[in-house]
Amino acid sequence: MIQRVRGTRDILPPESRLWANAEAQAQRVFGGFGYDEIRLPLVEATELFVRGVGEGTDIVAKEMYTFADRKGRSLTLRPEGTAGVARAYIEDGLAQWPQPVRLAYYGPMFRYEKMQAGRYRQFAQLGIELLGAATPEADMEILLVLHTYLESLGFEDLVILLNNLGDVEDRPRFVATLKAELEPFRGELCPDCQRRWEVNPLRLLDCKVPRCRQLMERTTPVAEVVSETAREHVAAVERGLERIGIPVRRAPRLVRGLDYYLRTVFEVVSPALGEDRVICGGGRYDRLISDLGGPQVPGVGFAIGEDRLLDVVPEAFRCRVLGQPLLAVLPVGSVATLDALRLARDLVQAGHRVQTEVTGRSLKAGLKWAGKLGASLALILGETEIASGVVSVRDLRRGLQEEVALTAAVARVGELLSAVDHEGERS
Ligand code: HAM
User: Which of 111, 167, 239, 397 could form a disulfide with 63 if both were Cys (CB 3.0 to 4.6 A apart)?
Assistant: First the structure.
C-alpha cells in the first residue's frame, strides 16, 4: 500500500467544498479591493528564499524542500509566496505598471515542519501583496482587506496582534539591547535559543519554551528602541485602524519567522486555538525587492493559512456551504436514463446541485441511495412518467410526492427548495 507523504493530506468532499468556497470568497474580496491573482511557479531557485526569507530563519535553515534538478541546479518548493511575488515584480517588469501594484495568490506552500496539530508539510495560503506604497495608509488597506474577508466568513472572535519592528538601522541597536539584557541569563536559554543568539537574535523573542518566554517578557520591547519615523508610521496605522473600526491589539514581543519584515508586523490568532496557532501573518517589507537586486520598492502584505482558517471557520459558513441542497435524479429503466441526464443538465444550468443515478438501481434502491446522500428532492423518471411527459418530484424530508410536467420541472424544483428554505428560517 502506497501512502500519502507525511504532513500532506487528501481533502475529500464535502470538506473540499468548504475550501473551494473559502477561496472563491477570497477572490471576491481581494479582487474587489483590486488584488488580482498572480499565478506563480511552485518551484523556484533556492537562492531566492535564502536571500529573500533569510538564511538564519527556521524556514531556510531547517524546513525547505530543496533538491537538485537533472542539471544539478538547486531548486526549492516554495515555502511562502512573498519572495516569489518580489522576484516576479523584478523579472516581469512590474515597476513599469501604474503603482502601487496589487497582487493576490492562492495555493500550496511546502515546509518540512515538525509534525504537530495544525502544521502540515504541504499547506495552502491565501495572500495579498501591495507593492510600491510606503505609507501607513497602505498598511491600513492591507489590514482592512484581511478584516473584510474574515468578517465575510462570519468570524467575530479573531484577534489581530500588531507590533513595530522598526527600520533596518534600528535592528543593531535593538539586538544589542536585547543581548545585554539577556546576557546574565544566557546559560539558562534553551539549545535552540543558543543557536538563535548567534544567527538570528530577533527570533529569541519567539521561543515557546516556558523559561525562555519568562526571560523574554522582561526585555525591553522592540517598539521602544525604534526610530521616531518608524514609531510614527505604526502609530498612524493604529490610529487609522481604530477610526475605521478595525480592532488591533499591541503585542510588544511579536516577531515573525521571516527576516524581511520592517516596521509593521501582525498576526491573527483565534481564542479557540490559542496564540501558538496563527491563522494569518503579515507585515511590511521595504527592503525585500532591493535586496533581491530590484529597484527600491516598498511592500506590505499578508498570507492566511487556509488549513488553519478552515479548522476554526464559523459554523454558519460550514452550514451555508454544506447545507446547499442536493437533488437526486432517479431514472427507472435504461430509456429513462437519457431523459434523466437531460433533466440533470437543465437543473445544473439553473444553478442546482445534482447527482444522477447511473448504476441501474431499482427505484427502491435509488431512493435509499438518495437518502444516504442527504438529497432534499428526488426526481423520478419511470416509463409511465416519460410516456406522459412528466416527472415525479418527491420531497425526501417530508415524504410528499407530486407529478410535474417535465417542461416545468426546473421551475417547480426552485419553488419547492425555497419553500423548504423558508421553513428552515421559521423554525
Ligand atoms: P507565515 O507566517 O510564515 O508568513 O505564514 C502565514 C500563515 O501560513 C501562517 O500564519 C499559518 O497560518 C500558515 N502556515 C505557515 N506554516 C504552516 C504549516 N506548516 N501548516 C499550516 N499552516 C501554516 C508568510 O508566509 C509570509 N509570506 C506572509 C506575508 C505575506 N507577509 C507579507 N506578505
Answer: 111
Asked if the peptide bond before residue 184 counts as cis, ω within 30 degrees of 0, the response is no
Cβ atoms within 10 Å of 61's Cβ, excluding its own: 14
Whether the CB of 80 sits within 6 Å of ligand 1: yes
CATH fold, domain 15-167+226-317, is: BirA Bifunctional Protein; domain 2 (3.30.930)
Please name the fold of domain 325-426. Rossmann fold (3.40.50)
Residue nearest to atom 8 of ligand 1 (CA): 305
Model confidence at 426, pLDDT cuts 50, 70, 90, reads: very low
How far, in Å, from the CA of 75 to the mean position of ligand 1? 20
Average pLDDT, the chain: 95
Give the residue among 114, 50, 55, 54 at the shortest CA–CA distance from 76.
50
Strands (E), 51-121: 65-68, 74-77, 101-110
Ligand 1 centroid – CA 70 distance (Å): 30
Domain ranges of the chain: 15-167+226-317, 325-426
What is the residue whose three cell numbers read 511557479? 41
Cα-based distances in Å from 309 to 21, 147, 423: 12, 13, 31
Ligand 1 centroid to residue 303 C-alpha, Å: 6
pTM for the whole structure = 0.95
Mutate to test the pocket of ligand 1, among 82, 106, 125 (most ligand atoms within 8 A of CB): 125
C-beta of residue 124 within 8 angstroms of C-beta of residue 138 = no
pLDDT tens for each residue of 12-41: 999 999 999 999 999 999 999 999 999 999
Lowest mean pLDDT segment, chosen from 70-74, 145-149, 157-161:
157-161
| Residue 351 alpha carbon to ligand 1 centre in Å | 35
> CA separation (Å) from 305 to 119, 120, 127, 241, 408?
10, 10, 9, 23, 45
Strand boundaries in 270-413, DSSP class E: 280-284, 299-305, 326-331, 353-356, 377-381, 390-395, 400-405
Q: What confidence tier does 206 reach under pLDDT thresholds 50, 70, 90?
A: confident
pLDDT of 334 reads: 79
Nine cell digits for residue 419: 419553500
- Rounded Cα distance between 71 and 282, Å, is 35
Confidence of residue 208 (pLDDT cuts 50, 70, 90): confident
